[in-house]
Amino acid sequence: MSAVPTRRVWWPSAGTVRGGLLGGIATASGMALTATSGWLIVRASQQPVILTLLTAIVAVRAFGMARPVFRYWERLTSHDAALEMLAERRTSAYEALVPLTPARLGRRRRSDVLTGVVDDLTDVVDAQVRVTVPVISTAVAGGIAIALTLVLSRPVGLVMLALGVAVCLISTLAAHLESRSLPELLAARAEVTRVSELMASQSGELRAVGGWATALGWLDEAHASLDRATRRISLGRAAAAALFLVVVGAAVAATAVIAQGLAVSTPVKALLVLTPVAVSEAITPLVDATRALARARGSAHRIDALLDLTPAVADEPRLAAAAEPGQAPDDTPGTRPGQTAYARCDVTTRALTASWTGEHTDLASTDLDVPAGSRIAVTGPNGSGKSTLLAVLARHLDPSGGTYRLGGTDVLGQPLEETRARIAVVDDETHVFATSLRNNLTLARPEADDADVERALRAAGLTTLLESLPDGLDTTLGSTGRGLSGGERARLGIARAHVSGRPVVLLDEPVAHLDPPTARAVVEDLTRLGSAPGTTGVAGTASAQTIIMVTHRDDGADLFDRVLEVRRPPSGTMSRTTADPVPHSGDRTHEADPPRR
Amino acid sequence: MKPFDPRLLRAVPAARRPVAVLAATGIASGATTIATAFALSAVVVAVVEGTDLTSPLVWLLGLFVVRAVLAATTERVAAWAGVSVSSALRAALLRRWGTVDADARLEPGPAVSLATSGAAAVEPYAARFLPTLVTAAVVPVLAIATLVVVDWPSALVVALTLPLLPVFAALIGKATAESTERRWAALASLSGHFLDVVRGLPTLVTYGRAHRQATTVREVSDRHRRATMETLRIAFLSSAALELLATISVAIVAVTVGLRLSHGSMALGAGLVAILLAPEAYWPVRRVGAEYHAAADGAVALDAILAQLDPTPTPAAPQSPATPAPNAAFGGVAPESGRVGEVRVAGLTYAYAGSPAPVVRDLDLVAGPGLTVVTGPSGVGKSTLLDLLAGLRRASTGTVEAPPSHYVTQRPFLSTGSVRQALTIGHPATDDQLWEALRAVGVDGVVAALPGGLSADLGDDGFGLSAGQRQRLALARAWLAPETLLLLDEPTAHLDPEGAEHVAALVAELAERRVVVAVTHRDELLAHAEHHVVLAATNASPVEVVREATSPSAAPRTAGEEGDR
């Protein structure tokens, strides 16, 4: 997304410029308050007629009032501008994310990637308030101070100018030190997170094999690197904080020496000496600005790297012949009951291959024949391409070769949305939206009524949940509402797919994070969805939904009509996985369950 | 939210030093700031009166250098303290979870977030809020004390007006509490909306709702902006009011000083010191208010972590008051003197937290050398029994005597690092020993074929290995383990009949040298079992324990349809 140029995160908007100018007035008022107070005190000590002090008293009072008032105004203006920018960035980032979802978000832990985007956007916009506004404010106030001192005394003005240059150099140095050490800090933080996540979620498994002490060792190591990285990155800020005081001290001393010999009134001498002291207060926010700048740059870099990716699917039909003019693909076409596409939505592939990066083959040539209404499990070692197969079937990833037909039509000749509208995808982390249970399901098919929703919930094994909810379908779920267990979430995802009434349901390790008994129970209910009479036809369809589930465990695979084992494509060459007839465990059916007990 | 919770220092000794150093630098900085006011006023007086500047300038420069050193130290110490306190809390939290009953831990989701982002949120609290707090506690007191000596009327003004700040802040807070709370709630849901939509993007894309949400994102972001500004307006207004109050107070000091100076009843130096010192008394107090909100997340997380570290469980906790069996820190229950290596369970009852019905009730069991196979219907507590023997759970009542164990769980821990690291996570072993173990379980060929062999990266959950291969890798680790008690949960799951037979033979071989307790629902193991224990469903009380003849061909009697998988 070119709207967030990495090197220019601090580039101001009109609103932040206004905020910066207002902040400049506030900062200048603060400096003027200190300086005029000094003038006033020294003048008073000369015991003049009180009336002659009146102007100065009014000025001091005005500066004293102006500082909080303008600061308040600045904060309102700059925060409003930043939030406006945040709203814009969020919208454009969201729009940029849509075509990248889900294939370009990584293979696992997509919600973590997405959370990272949200946090990074906040950090980028934060730079407006924490970097741009203080820098403009300080520059404005500093400029005023330099100009006025130049008028009063050229040498003192030059000292102030030198002070300004020194502050610029120190800030640049600090920002450089901060940016340089940031990657190390982020890496250390990520390692601490990884290890503590491991230990918090798998302490039982670790203790069981006597690995707890080893894991504690990892944690200590990760903490030690984090400690080193934090110390290193604090160098920049420490240097800035110290050097600012040193140059201010030097400026005060130089001004004092110059002012003593000046041919100006003594109160003005006091004013001149106190001016650099007042500057010290104005430049302190710059220390924190270096930190915010480095963070924002890092965040902008990450966002750019993600949003600049090209989508994994092209939205233009590849075969012009197949493209039919007609209505533009609605968001949820094909969910109308009784449509012929439902009756026979066979999934057929021939010599289908795919690659995530284009560099090596992730899915070896695959022939697949899944008749409408059948249920197949896809297994195989990690890295064998089973998730890749699913991504291609779901039209998340364009195949690199071969054909893929859905209900007899080559999907590559179809508009993307049209194909996707016939497929429901359930992944390993079902997202529960912070809305009612009803809305969580009807988002899959807005015209579904309560009866459809309840039927889907019961079919997915959520009868107990439904009956335990005080507000029934109106119960708010998600981050602000009732929490769901892992099993309930997986079932919710399945119920959603069921409500959608789409003819094909693809499941990508939906039970990967569940304990084995729960996983099996979920899969049992899932496979029953298609087969048992009376539980189907949520959308009024005649035939059952076609279910294709990827799993890396064997749990429940025996419940499927067929098991397809995908083999890892040998590096470089292309092997051939033929899925029909099933190559591995024989054609398992319910009737011919292998004698296991 | 408490500004500072002394429980932190009690529960996490590692946090004491950073907090102490923070306090020390805070006090030193405060003292130098006050000394600078004197030096500065001396410089101004010298400039104004045309006297020798050398001595006051040397003092001033010296003090600026000291302040510079202290400022750098403060930045460094704050960063170090932040990361030390947060790391110490995280380590204490995880160490604690490594010793408590599996049921006494949080759910995995909240546990992970508390150990990761929760502990990290404490960092800004310790790095920014605590130093501010120290300064606010020290500097105003030092400033007022100095003013008492230099110019007591100014000290009086400051001492009388300073308490107005917190009072004023509290009044503003109270007056706006209700609307603020209402706004925060609205704000929380609005600010959560974008995260919710973005995290749910894969779902929205699947069901073709993603593009439609773009306008909603814009709308909600705008509403979020307005709601945030409402909240911020109050916060900024109250902070502006406090600043104004402080400015007025300083102005009162300045007016009294000015009047006395113009009457000639006060020396210029003292007057300058008074007006330079007076603001120093107010700003630290104002800063606490400003940092207070930034630190709120950290304080909440700190509270949650300290609650976890609290050695006494809360009264509401369903933990049984009965003293649990003595438990080693990890890896099993300390053996009682006497029959070393034997597992003795007497009157064992265990209920999951929050569940009134025990899953294991009044169980007696003795498992000596050889293979003991436990079967029973799903949900009967077979895995729980192994957890109890391994010391991962503590008996509600009854006793468990078991030597340190090696326990192959249903989903054995295999993630991250190389094959070598996975196999040596519990105990070190040479490569030769590793290959021997891999040969014994029959995956030496698979590992040899991996790029890098023993150094091959397994990745999350064993990349490139099938479930059966991962299972065997876990058994290879068990083969290497020196513990005399081996606990196996469904060791032949994920294996084809041939592989299962191979593993069963391997388990039998392992049982020649140690006590092996295995939970299974498959036949292969029963054929090798010396003891067969059938756990009956919980409604039959007490649990029926059947000890069969020590015969390798003991007819297996399984009690249920599906295994406890």
Description:
- The complex is a heterodimer of chains A (597) and B (565).
- Chain A has 597 residues and is an alpha/beta fold.
- Chain A has 16 helices and ten strands.
- Helix content of chain A is 56%, strand content 8%.
- Chain A has a five-stranded mixed sheet with strand order 5-4-1-2-10.
- With 565 residues, chain B is an alpha/beta fold.
- Chain B has 16 helices and eight strands.
- Chain B has helices at 7-11, 16-49, 54-97, 108-150, 152-161, 164-199, 201-206, 210-263, 268-309, 382-390, 419-423, 431-441, 444-449, 467-480, 497-510, 523-526, and strands at 343-350, 360-367, 370-375, 397-401, 405-408, 485-489, 515-519, 531-534.
- At the A-B interface, helix 1, helix 2, helix 3, helix 4 and helix 5 of A face helix 2, helix 3, helix 4, helix 6 and helix 7 of B.
In the CATH hierarchy, the third-tier topology of the largest domain in chain B is known as: Rossmann fold
Instruction: Enumerate the spans of chain B where pLDDT stays under 50 for 5 or more consecutive residues.
Output: 313-339, 539-565
Please report the total strand number of chain B as a whole number: 8
CATH superfamily of the largest domain in chain B: P-loop containing nucleotide triphosphate hydrolases
Total domain count of chain B? 3
Based on CA inertia axes, which overall geometry of chain A fits?
elongated
Overall pLDDT metric of chain B: 81
Distance between the termini of chain B: 45 Å
Q: Could you give the count of β-strands of chain A?
A: 10
Helix-strand string of chain A = HHHHHHHHHEEEHEEHEHHHHEHEEE
